[in-house]
Design brief:
heterodimer; A: 368 residues; alpha+beta; 6-stranded mixed β-sheet; 5-stranded antiparallel β-sheet; 24% helix; elongated; B: 313 residues; mainly alpha; MetI-like fold
C-alpha cells in the first residue's frame, strides 16, 4: 500500500503536442481516486505515466515516498488492468494470474495459495484451467483483476476497465470492483470517461480536460459545487442546462436572471450579495434537470415559476425526461412520471433556484 | 385419343420437372462454388496431380522404360554410396540453412521492428534485395566471388597475407558455401514474415508483461515467441519444402561436386535423370523428398491448427 503523488507532471509528444500540462495530484494511502474526462483529456496518459509505460517530459511522480521517474514498470510494484484486459492468449487463466508471481520467483505453493484466494474473491475458481478465449467478457475482466490482486501491489491502476462490457455487466462489475477495493484496500487510480463510474466508485474524483485538472473533490463536491462550467456540464446525466443570461436588479433590492424578454427568474435573497458584482454583465445560468419540476400550487422560497414550450417527452419508467428549446439552447427537465407534459404545449415548471449556478461567460468559472 | 393426350401431358410434365431440377442444381450454392473453383482445380490437376502420379509411374519403370520394376529403383538408389551422400547433404543443407535463416530472420525482424517507421521502409527494401533478384543471377555472382583465382573473397584474404581458399573445390567448404548462399537468399523471406508477426502482437501484452515484472528476455520467451509460434512453424515448413527442393544454387555453384559431396535431391535427380538418361531413376530420386516433407507438414500443420483453436479470440 502506498500514496501516489504527481508534481508538475508534463507529457509532451513529438511535434510539441502537450497531452498533460503540469498536473499536481496527491493520492492518499488506501484511497480510490477516479480520473475522469472526455477523450483526449490526458487521463490515460497520466495513468500510464504513473505505471511507467510513458516517459515523463518533466515533473516528478512519487509512489510510496520514492521518486519513480526513472524506475521501470516492473520495479514500481504496481498492477494494472487494461481496457481490453491484455490477457496472454496462450496461457491458461491460472497461468495468466500466476505469471507475475512466477517471474518474481515465488514458491509454487505460495503462487497456488494466492491465485486460489484471488479466484475465490472474484468467483472464477472454476475457470482456472481454461484459456482466455474460452471465458466470457465479464470473466476475462475478473481474470485481469485477479492478475492484479495476486501480486498484492502498492497501487492498482485501472484503465477504462469496463468500457468493453455491455451495460448490464458494467453495472455488475462496477460493484465487484468496489467490493474488491473494500476487501483489499489497495490505493487505486481508476481512469474512465463514464461519469457514473466516477461518481459511484470514487473516494475522490479528478476531473480532467485538455491536459489539466479542472477539479478534485468528493463525488458530492464535484456534483453539487462544480468550480467550472466544464465540470458542471460533464458531471451529471443528463447534463446541466446552460442558458446565456444577464443579472438584473429585481424589486426590493433583489436580483434576477434575465434569459430573454419572456423569461426572468428571481435569485434567492441569500445569494444577492454573491452575484451583485456581476449585475448587468453577460453570464451563464446553469440548472440541473432534476431542479426543474412540474409546478404545483405550493409556494416555497427559492422555487420560481417558468413556462416553456415542450419539444419532446421521454418516459423512462421511474422518471420522464422532458426537453425544451430556449433561444436555440436545449433544456431538459427530469419530471415525475405522472407528468401531463405533451409535445407542442406549454408546461408550467418550477426552477429550484437554491440549486442554481451562475458562471462567467468567458472563463466558465462558477461564481461562489 | 384420350390415352395419347394423357401420355403427351405426362411427358411434358416430366420434361418440366427435369428442367426445373436442372435449374435448381445450377442455382445451388455448392454448384456455383464448384464452378468458380473449377479453373483452379483444372490447373492443379494438370500441373500438380498429373505430374506427381506420372513421376510415381516413371519411378517404377526400368531405364528403357519398357518394363515395370516395382520399387527396384528405390532399392537400387538406397544401396548406392553417392545417393547416401545425397540424403546426408540434402538433410544437412536443408536443416542448417532453415535453422540459420529462421535465426537470422528473427534477429533482423526484431532490429527492423525497433527502427522508427520512416527509416524502416528503406532498410526493409534493402534487406529484401537478395530475395527479389532472380536466384540464378545472384548465384552466378556468388560463383564469381568464390572463384579460386580471381575472386573477391580470396582477394580480401590475400590483403591480410592469407593464402587462397579453394571455396568450391573442397568438399566441406563447398557444402558450407552452398548453404551460405541459400541462407543469404532465404533470410529476407523469414525476416518479412516475422516482422509481420511481430507487428501483430498487441502492444498491451508487452505492457502487461512489463508491469508483471518481465525483463526484455522474459518478454521474448513468454510473449513474443508463443504469439509467433504459428508463423514460425508455417514459415519453417514452407522454407523446408523449398530448401529441400533447391536446385539453382547447387547446380550453378558446384554442379554437385566435388566428388558428389554437394549434391541435393534435385541436382542428383537432374544428373541421373536428364544428363545420364535414366529418367525412372531420376524420378525415384526426386520422390524421396515426398515422405520426409509430408511427415513434417503433417506435424507442423496439426500444431498450428491446435494452437489457433486455443488462442483465437
Amino acid at each position: 500500500m502506498a500514496e501516489v503523488s504527481c508534481r508538475k507532471v508534463v507529457k509532451e509528444y513529438d511535434g510539441g503536442v502537450q497531452a498533460v500540462k503540469g498536473i499536481d495530484l496527491d493520492i492518499a494511502d488506501h484511497e480510490f481516486v477516479v480520473l475522469v474526462g472526455p477523450s483526449g483529456c490526458g487521463k490515460s496518459t497520466t495513468l500510464r505515466m504513473i505505471a511507467g509505460l510513458e516517459e515523463i517530459t518533466s515533473g516528478e511522480i512519487w509512489i510510496g515516498g520514492d521518486v519513480v521517474n526513472d524506475v521501470p514498470p516492473r520495479d514500481r510494484d504496481i498492477a494494472m488492468v487494461f481496457q481490453n484486459y491484455a490477457l496472454y492468449p496462450h496461457m491458461s487463466v491460472f497461468d495468466n494470474m500466476a505469471f507475475g508471481l512466477k517471474l518474481r520467483k515465488f514458491p509454487k505453493e505460495e503462487i497456488k495459495r494466492r491465485v486460489d484466494e484471488a479466484a475465490r474473491i472474484l468467483d472464477i475458481g472454476m475457470l482456472l484451467e481454461r484459456k482466455p478465449r474460452a471465458v466470457s467478457g465479464g470473466q476475462r475482466q475478473r481474470v485481469a483483476m485477479g492478475r492484479a490482486i495476486v501480486r498484492n501491489p502498492k497501487v492498482f491502476l485501472f484503465d477504462e476497465p469496463l468500457s468493453n462490457l455491455d451495460a448490464k455487466l458494467r453495472v455488475q462489475m462496477r460493484t465487484e470492483i468496489k467490493k474488491v477495493h473494500q476487501t483489499v484496500k489497495t490505493t487505486t487510480v481508476y481512469v474512465t470517461h463514464d461519469q457514473i463510474e466516477a461518481m459511484t466508485l470514487a473516494d475522490r474524483v479528478v476531473v480532467m480536460n485538455h491536459g489539466i485538472i479542472e477539479q478534485v473533490g468528493s463525488p458530492a463536491e464535484v456534483y453539487h459545487h462544480p468550480t467550472s462550467r466544464f465540470v458542471a456540464g460533464f458531471i451529471g446525466s443528463p447534463a446541466m442546462n446552460f442558458l446565456p443570461c444577464h443579472i438584473e436588479e429585481a424589486g426590493g433590492g433583489g436580483l434576477s436572471v434575465r434569459v430573454n424578454s419572456a423569461i426572468q427568474v428571481a435569485i434567492p435573497a441569500e445569494r444577492t450579495a454573491r452575484y451583485m458584482p456581476f449585475k448587468g454583465k453577460e453570464m451563464v445560468f446553469g440548472i440541473r434537470p432534476e431542479h426543474l419540476t412540474q409546478r404545483k400550487e405550493e409556494d416555497r422560497p427559492g422555487f420560481e415559476p417558468l413556462d416553456l414550450l415542450v419539444d419532446v417527452v421521454e418516459p423512462m419508467g421511474m422518471e420522464t425526461m422532458v426537453h425544451f428549446f430556449v433561444d436555440g439552447a436545449p433544456i431538459c427537465a427530469r419530471l415525475d412520471p405522472a407528468t401531463n407534459a405533451e409535445p407542442e404545449k406549454m408546461l408550467g415548471l418550477t426552477a429550484d433556484m437554491n440549486q442554481m449556478h451562475i458562471m462567467e461567460k468567458d472563463t466558465g468559472k462558477v461564481i461562489y | 385419343m384420350a390415352e395419347s393426350s394423357s401420355i403427351s401431358v405426362g411427358s411434358a410434365a416430366a420434361g418440366a420437372t427435369r428442367t426445373s431440377s436442372m435449374k435448381r442444381f445450377a442455382q445451388r450454392r455448392s454448384t456455383t462454388a464448384f464452378l468458380l473453383c473449377l479453373p483452379l482445380i483444372l490447373l492443379v490437376a494438370v500441373f500438380v496431380i498429373y505430374p506427381a502420379f506420372y513421376a510415381i509411374y516413371l519411378s517404377m519403370l526400368n531405364k528403357k522404360m519398357t518394363a515395370f520394376v516395382g520399387l527396384g529403383n528405390f532399392a537400387f538408389l538406397l544401396k548406392r554410396h553417392t545417393f547416401q551422400l545425397v540424403i546426408f547433404q540434402s538433410c544437412l543443407f536443408a536443416i542448417t540453412a532453415v535453422v540459420m535463416k529462421a535465426l537470422l530472420g528473427f534477429i533482423l525482424a526484431h532490429l527492423m521492428h525497433n527502427i522508427p517507421s520512416g527509416n524502416q521502409k528503406i532498410w526493409r527494401g534493402l534487406l529484401l534485395v537478395p530475395w527479389v533478384i532472380p536466384l540464378a543471377l545472384s548465384t552466378l555472382t556468388w560463383w564469381w566471388m568464390f572463384d579460386p583465382s580471381y575472386s573477391a573473397f580470396n582477394w580480401v584474404l590475400n590483403q591480410f597475407g592469407l593464402a587462397n581458399v579453394p571455396w568450391l573445390g573442397v568438399g566441406w567448404i563447398a557444402r558450407l558455401c552452398t548453404i551460405t548462399v541459400n541462407i543469404w537468399f532465404g533470410t529476407p523471406f523469414f525476416m518479412i514474415m516475422y516482422l509481420a508477426a511481430l507487428k501483430s502482437v498487441p502492444e498491451q501484452l508487452y505492457e502487461a508483461a512489463s508491469i508483471d515484472g518481465a525483463t526484455a528476455r522474459q518478454k521474448l520467451v513468454h510473449v513474443t515467441l508463443p504469439m509467433m509460434r504459428n508463423i514460425i512453424s508455417i514459415t519453417i515448413l514452407f522454407s523446408l519444402i523449398t530448401t529441400f527442393a533447391d536446385f539453382d544454387i547447387v547446380r550453378i555453384l558446384t554442379s554437385g561436386g566435388p566428388q558428389d559431396m554437394t549434391h541435393v535431391f534435385a541436382t542428383y535427380a537432374f544428373q541421373v535423370g536428364i544428363q545420364s538418361g535414366d529418367i525412372p531413376l531420376g524420378a525415384s530420386d526426386s520422390l524421396f523428398m515426398f515422405p520426409i516433407l509430408a511427415c513434417a507438414a503433417f506435424f507442423v500443420l496439426r500444431g498450428v491448427t491446435q494452437r489457433t483453436k486455443e488462442i483465437a479470440a
